[in-house]
């Protein structure tokens, strides 16, 4: 991953568009599989609905992801609203819940990837040639990785999930070890 090319592109007078891609990876112990779903919420230049970046195909899927910004020192807790019009998400939830009843994708890893149109693979453009620049599978903003904390809503139209950072989950301690005076004698001592 290299952030230098994307920051250089963003600072231009007329930068190329920011492309937002998402991955959802299941955990075998929780969901019975390690399937990776790749998707995006926009449309592609060649009208087939698929964006190819770094050799991976991201399917077009109605999704709204919000709440990634840090505000007043708070760790972000993004919300993910996904269309359930075709029952796709409900089908995934049914499959996952066969392994762990009531899991509803809790514990799955959600990653937000942002790159620029200039760095997309050439197959996305007519004539398989990127007129905006040279494809670069390493040019991206810092990835934002979250864990699905819970399913907030499920209707026939949408499914809403709440995401949490690695250290913002209930019952998780950082650095996963409690510091006590028995292990670290200097804890709680103050010399004047």
General description of the model:
This protein has three helices and nine strands; from the N terminus they run H-E-H-E-E-E-E-E-H-E-E-E. The protein is of the alpha+beta class. The protein has a nine-stranded mixed beta sheet, with helices on one face. A hairpin with a 2-residue loop joins strand 3 and strand 4.
Q: Keyphrases for this structure?
A:
single chain, 192 residues, alpha+beta, nine-stranded mixed sheet, 3 helices
Short description:
Helices cover 12% and strands 30% of the residues. It is of the alpha+beta class. A nine-stranded mixed beta sheet has the order 3-4-2-1-7-8-9-6-5, with helices on one face.
Bulk shape: globular
Overall structural class, as computed from helix and strand content, comes to alpha+beta
Instruction: Name the helicity range.
Output: 10-25%
The proportion of residues in beta strands is 25-35%
Please trace the helix and strand order, writing H or E for each element: HEHEEEEEHEEE
Low-pLDDT stretches: none
Terminal CA distance reads 47 Å
Strand element count: 9
For the biggest sheet, the summary is: 9 strands, mixed
Number of helices: 3
Mean pLDDT: 83
Major sheet: arrangement of strands: 3-4-2-1-7-8-9-6-5
Radius of gyration: 20 Å
């Amino acid at each position: 991953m290299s952030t230098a090319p994307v920051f250089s592109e963003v600072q231009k007078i007329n930068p190329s568009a920011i492309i937002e891609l998402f991955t959802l990876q299941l955990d075998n112990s929780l969901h019975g599989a390690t399937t990776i779903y790749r998707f995006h919420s926009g449309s592609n230049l060649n009208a087939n609905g698929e964006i190819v970046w770094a050799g991976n195909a991201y399917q077009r899927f109605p999704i709204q992801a919000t709440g990634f910004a840090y505000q007043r020192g708070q760790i972000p807790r993004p919300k993910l609203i996904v269309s359930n019009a075709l029952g796709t998400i409900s089908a995934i939830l049914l499959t996952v819940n066969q392994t762990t009843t009531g899991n509803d994708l809790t514990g799955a890893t959600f990653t937000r990837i942002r790159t620029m149109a200039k760095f997309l693979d050439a197959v996305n453009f007519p004539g398989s040639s990127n007129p905006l620049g040279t494809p670069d599978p390493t040019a991206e903003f810092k990835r934002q990785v979250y864990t699905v904390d819970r399913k907030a809503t499920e209707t026939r139209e949408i499914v809403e999930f709440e995401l949490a950072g690695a250290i913002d989950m209930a019952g998780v301690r950082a650095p996963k070890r409690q510091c006590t005076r028995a292990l670290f004698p200097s804890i709680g001592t103050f010399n004047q």
